[in-house]
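User: New here, please read:
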Amino acid sequence: MMNAVLVGCGAMSKAWLDAARQIDGLAIVGLVDLDAERAKARAREYGLDGAVVGTNLEAVLEQTKPQAVFDVVVPAARRDVAFAAFDHNCHLLTEKPLGDTPENARAIVEAARRAGRVHAVVQNRRYVANVRRIRRFLDSGAIGKPTSIHADFFVAPHFGGFREEMAHVLLLDMAIHTFDAARYMVGGEPAGVYCQEWEPANSWYRQGSSASAVFDLGGGKIFTYAGSWCADGFRTSWEGSWRIVAERGSLTWDGSDALKAEAVVPGRDGIFDKTQAIEVPALDPADRVGGHLGIIRDFIHAIETGSEPETRGADNIKSLAMVFGAIESAETGRRVAIAEEAS
């Protein structure tokens, strides 16, 4: 039996609790939120009648003594939650992003290392079936090593609330999903970035709704990202739209179900090398999928077996470094080296 306390009972907590109720042997023994009534409402909604409800995480941890903490708080509160969890000998699974600043992210990862606790991040785009299929396909060498990775993200949601007032809204709130997926699919190690942000006339955000970035992912791999939170019309998938160019062919993915690849074959049609369509194999049974559910299961498995979860903080900080590197580049107008930040 694994007992966990969930802290942060806002809208995102529903995804966590929906997943948690599907896992045998996992019990939510405490709910914490600055708004006690909101925490009580979540307890009633999910039938958690025996859970301890409170506004103080330390007090609830003392009372419940769980093995794990599920962190669904706003990023600015993440460091305090992490330190409290580790001080109470708890493992920690946290919503993205890992931290609200590079310094806090590094401090959390180091605290987890010192405490000897499992620490992972809900970076759930890795748990999308086609992301797994792409990684396996590229690893097979069917089209050679990837050289150029391109992702477009054009969505125009009217969130209301804090997002429309925050700085660097696209890069800080959403882009890490695309950045982490790119890094995972091609086995990239971020080394540098040049990025520009702008606020188009059609935007309803305060700052940073549109951005374009070029990343060096090491080993001759370049990743370009173009995105907007205010591009009405021809909306992309929430997963983005992708083209990956490799040494002997290319792969395209619309972010939904259309996943295609072509490989170079002998001969030419005029000035162009001939290509032919090749199949991207189906999902492997060993591939971990399922969004929040898959990640929570992976986290629990790591605790039970003494292994490391795939989205462990010590690795995920490299994707977060891409975000902060892009923000610094946009603010300074220069290329930013991020290899040291990601180490």
Observations:
- The first strand starts at residue 2 and ends at 7.
- The chain has a mean pLDDT of 95.
- The chain is about 35% helix and 25% strand.
